[in-house]
Amino acid sequence: MDLQPYQMVRSLQLVQDRIAGGDHASLPMQNKLLEMIDTRFRSSSQEDFSDERNIRALLVYAMSGGNPSTVASRLGRLELPDMDRTAGDAVLAYLLGDAVQARTALASIDPTRYANDVAAFLSLIMGSVLAGDRYDEALSHLDRARLLGPGTLVEEAALRRTVALAVAKGDGERFIAASEQYARRFLRSPYAAQFAEAFVEGTINLRETLNLTRFEQTVDWMTGEQARTIYLRLSRQAAIDGDAELLAFATDRVKKYPVGRDGMRDARAELYSTLSSVTSTTVTETLDRLEGLNNAGLSVKDRALLEAAKTVAHEVVAPVSPQSLPATARPATDADEAAIDRGLIESTRARLGEIDKLLEESGR
Fold first, then answer.
1. Which of 44, 121, 140, 212 has CA atoms 20 to 30 A from the CA of 358?
2. Chain centroid to CA 130: how far?
3. Are 47 and 182 in contact (CB under 8 A)?
């Protein structure tokens, strides 16, 4: 006898809970279950959906990475209560990327009228589609999603979206609080890399209001490898941005996580700590450090960044002959010379940032 859809979806939820806890080996099992559930729903009848548990299962399947065409096919053939029909239409619109339609349908839905597993998913979707312009309401939905789905991929996703939303709205306190919660609970999730990117980006964007002590406390929850990666990413961006204080903070913390048993510093840390002085008054010394840097430990992207930095440094130290300038551009005073030097520094730093952006976009 075939298993009922709700029984199969329950198994899927158990597997996804294991994934949220860091069991990456369960990912293939998740994919296989999704395929099996897809087949089961395609062969289901109206009689199957006389059991309300199967209606809820269809919604959970849809929100758990299900096949939109299967969901659309089932919804089109079923006679459903108005509330379930509206919820199904909202979920399908969300799966198809129609945020406007999803928002319209969700406006008439009270998630708390459903069982917790469905309500958690619906709250997650509500928080996502409202994130663009209704900050407080979106956060409220995401908070409810976390509370209704503790330890699940729903809570994991809700925390990641809260982090991103807090950055977009400049809410430093909410950003660091959600980041710490994520670090304490979901660093073994297969989606933790997405969190790490948002965490570093948020730290850079909220730099003026962010408490670096709180940042460090959050990183302390991570493994040594994760912490080193975070501080290296932070060092890289701080160097490009010319934020000396943040760079000093990040490169100092990298020293706590040496690579290898010999305690040697990561070549990336050496590069990033040097980048900040490419356009400084000590650029000659900096150029010597760049020229002597062993690039064997650098990625292709960072090797390209190293070459770009050396090019910029060479331009900064290259002598400029006053005779090569138009008469109106020749400095008449020490102040004028200083202004030209500052302009050169600013323009070369901007070029370095542009080069780094191009490297990021090209994925080199």
1. 212
2. 19
3. no
